[in-house]
Structure formats: structure tokens, C-alpha cells
Amino acid sequence: MKKVILSSLGHIKIIDAEEPSITAGDHVKLMINWVGICGSDLHYFRTGRIGNQVVKYPFSIGHEATATVVGTGKEVRNLVLGDRVAIEPAISCGKCDQCLAGREHTCRNLTFLGNPSEAEGCMQEFIVVPEKVCFKLPDAISTDYGVLLEPLTIALHSMSFTPFIGDTAILGAGPIGLCVMEAIRLKKHGKIFVTDLIDHRLNVSKLHGANWIGNPGKTDIVKSILAEVPLGLDTVFECCGKQEAINHALHLLKPGGSLVIVGIPEVDHIEFDIHLLRRKEINIYNVRRQNKQFNNAIHLVETKQLDIFHLITHRFDYSDTQQAMDLVDKYQDEIIKALISFN
């Protein structure tokens, strides 16, 4: 089979690899349809690491994927050949204290697809995974659209930390930030402020529901937003992983406000103005991927309560993955979400 690998920093290769076989009764063999390029894939492409998760080359990335079932183990009960599925890339053990407490996303023995030292990614023609991480796609959701379900689950999970959204800002209007904006619109909320360094993404935000947009590279966003809401914001969703965004958030939040950190920094440490933090008694929540949101995401998309199809701006054949990664890396051609096709 064909497999896309990171061969070195910033370099992609297509290789021939052995096709995987089912070795456990509860596993299924999948033929990959589409794979989305995620921000974490970019981290591995650019720097070869996220924190202590360091790529050992060659390595296959990619975890936002849809596929078709082409084989089933003897214990598989809910999937049959030909079923189209979205893949939950986090494979939990189901036995540790975290899993038993309903926190499968922080499983002590978690295996995540496309995560160094854990599991190869989805950028290959075939993959074998447990049945439990496969979510059947209804007819209303195409396999390309289905790739967006995984990032959408993260946005939905981020809503669980604070029941009151109020006036809010989304700092970073990439795919995750735009999914967060859509998730906010499902809840009772006040004004939505969106910031990003890329004007096109701001314009997309405005078109799809943002009340105010601003580019921190061109304007003092703290001053401008506080002119609109002098008492400060109730919540801020940090979706870009940048120190500057953390700094902005602390100044934008009102006392007792909530900072929800969704973005993944490329650095190992970020700083907080501890005196501003404590004087305002700001609540900080870290989002670790998602927890039990796949069925919810499928329902919301299938029933058209959410429409995020516009996030897909580019599609590439797997043979052009290098071109796709370079384009996403440089934020060129008004790209938001790029998909890689395998069939």
C-alpha cells in the first residue's frame, strides 16, 4: 500500500508499505478516504515535536480521517463491510482510573493515531483500529465533510468548561477557532469578538457570525474590544497557542472571567501575569482534545444545526502531500483546512 511519511524536518515522502492485517477480534480494517491536516501535524512538520513527543523518522502523521470498512474481526458487532466511518484517533484502555471516571481522553494508557511513540497516523491507504473508535457516518455527511467532525468535537468539548459564555473572544481563527465560534452560537451568548493575524480568516469569521473582528498585527485589539465592552469579557477561548494571545486574554477578561486554552503552543512554557491573574481571580481551563462528543458532533452536522463545510478550502491527492503541507505551513492561497485524498 501507499503511505505518506515525514522523512525529515519539513520533508514528505510517499513509500510502499506492508498492508496491515486484523490481529484482534474487536478490530476493523479501514480503507482511508480523506485525512485533514491539523495544527498538530504542522508542529511535527515544522519542528519535529510537541513537548516531549518527538518524531523518530520516518513517521506517518494525520489523525483527522474518514474511511470505509473493508475487514472486520470476529467480535465486531456494529460495523459491516462498506460502512463509512469517521475515526476517533484517541484509543483508550477502558480500565485505568481515568477511563473508569469517564475521562477516556486523559487515559493513562492512551494511544493516539499520528502521535510519536504511540501510533502511526492515518496518512496511508489502510489502517487497523478498534471498532469502538469508528463512528458510522449517516448518508447526509460525505466522507470529506466527515473529516471536520474530529476538530468539531474539540470545540464542543471546550464548551463544557463554563456554562455561561456571555461576551466572548476567540483568539485565533484557524479551523479550531472557527469550530469554536460555531459551537458558541449553539449556546446563549453575547457579542463574539474574533482576532487573527490573517485577514481572510477574519473575513470568514465575520461572514459566519462574529460581531467584531480585529488583526492584532494592525490594531490594539485589547483597547478596541474594551471600547466595545468596558467591563471586560466573560470568556476568552485561546485557539492559536501564542504567548501574545494569553497576554491579551488576561487583559480582556473581567474579574471572575474564564480563559479556555484550546490552542497548542510550539514552545514548552508559557507565562502568566500572576498578579493580574490573581487580582481578577480568573479561571483557567485547559482543553485536552475531546471527550464523548463524536455522536453529538454527527447529530449537529446531520441535522444542520451546525454548518462548517466552508472550512474545507483545499483538496489534494496523497501524491501531493508535500505541496499541501507547504501551503498550510505558509498560510498561502487563503487556506483554512486542507484535505488529503487516498481514493
How would you describe this structure to a colleague?
The chain has eleven helices and 19 strands. Strands 3, 6, 7, 10, 11, 18 and 19 form a seven-stranded mixed sheet that branches. The protein has two domains: 181 residues, Quinone Oxidoreductase, Chain A, domain 1 (Alpha-Beta Complex), CATH 3.90.180.10; 132 residues, 3-Layer(aba) Sandwich (Rossmann fold), CATH 3.40.50. Helix 4 packs across helix 5, helix 4 crosses helix 10 and helix 7 packs parallel to helix 8. It is 26% helix and 29% strand. The protein is of the alpha/beta class and 343 residues long. It is globular and about 60 Å long.
Please count the helical segments: 11
CATH architecture of the largest domain: Alpha-Beta Complex
Provide the β-strand percentage band: 25-35%
For the record, the count of structural domains works out to 2
CATH third-tier fold name of the largest domain: Quinone Oxidoreductase, Chain A, domain 1
Taken from the alpha-carbon principal axes, the silhouette is globular
Q: Which superfamily, in CATH terms, is the homologous superfamily of the largest domain?
A: Medium-chain alcohol dehydrogenases, catalytic domain
Secondary structure: helix percent = 25-40%
| Uncertain stretches of 5 or more adjacent residues | none
* Radius of gyration, CA atoms, in whole angstroms: 20 Å
Derived structural class: alpha/beta
Q: Output mean pLDDT.
A: 97
Number of strands: 19
The first-level CATH class of the largest domain is given as Alpha Beta
Q: Distance N terminus to C terminus?
A: 12 Å
